[in-house]
Amino acid sequence: MKLLQFLKSFSFKKTKNIPVTFIDRNETRELPEIPDYIVEECQSLQLKLNTTKSDPFSSLRLIYNFLDTYSKFASTFTVCSKGCSSCCKIAVKVTALEASYIEKFTNHKIMENKKRKAKSNTDCPFLISDICSIYEYRPFNCRTFFTIDDPKYCKTPDEPHNVYGTNGGEGVPIIYQFRKYIDKLNGKRMVNDIRKFFDRDDN
Predict the structure, then answer these.
(1) Contacts with 127 (C-beta within 8 Å, 6 or more apart), sequence order
(2) Residue 95: which H helix or E strand, with range?
(3) Radius of gyration of the chain from Cα atoms?
């Protein structure tokens, strides 16, 4: 099977005009087919990453740009919205490369402390008044995690419900491949919760 056919058919069903209504966590939401323009942009990005020599930060930006496009598509069937910040209170693994990217393009400095405990179910260091203060530079795992049933289930830590794109897009090949690409760029450098790299006090 050709790549384009594979990416379009994986785990999706053809539906039209799906209303983004809240559903029970035991219900199944049918997902739309990935549009051709996203598949084409994905293939273009693959080509750029494989044939163009660029610094890791430039590669990250290219990947993030693609994820921005993909997020607009995902918004047609997910229930996430601005101001809903429950997912900003769970563990978010980032690579040292992504932490350095945040440091380079924002005013926040990496304050790595091996003794610091990354407490789960606490606010992300960059969550200010329920809004991400580094939204444009947020890491990969934040860009690929969505809820597809009802946001009320997100408010209780570890509440089981239907999500999409967890663990960096695992289960969604068209985006997960870029998670693996970033891991490769990161090499043997640290991968840890974002709270291990940044203190809330530096905001």
Answers:
(1) 85, 88, 89, 133
(2) strand 93-95
(3) 17
103 C-beta neighbours (distance < 10 Å), count: 16
Mean of all residue pLDDT scores within the chain: 86
Bridge partners for 127 per DSSP:
132
Q: Report the alpha-carbon distance of residue 22 to residue 66 in Å, rounded.
A: 27
**Residue 124: how many other CB atoms lie within 10 Å:** 23
First to last CA, the chain: 49
CA distance 93 to 168: 9
Nearest by Cα to 72 from 169, 146, 173: 146
Give the pTM: 0.86
- The average pLDDT across 8-25 equals 58
Instruction: Pick the range with the lowest mean pLDDT from 13-22, 25-34, 82-91, 149-158.
Output: 13-22
Place of tokens 């969505």: 146
Number of other CB atoms surrounding residue 26 within 10 Å: 8
Can you give the residue ranges of every domain in the chain? 3-9+34-202
Rounded to 5 degrees, φ, ψ at 99 are -65, -40
Note the maximum CA span of the chain: 51
Q: Which of 12, 182, 15 is nearest to 101 (CA)?
A: 182
Give residues with Cβ within 8 angstroms of 31, minimum separation 6: 11, 12, 13, 15, 18, 77, 148, 164
Task: Yes or no: say if 151 and 79 are a contact pair by the CB < 8 Å rule.
Answer: yes
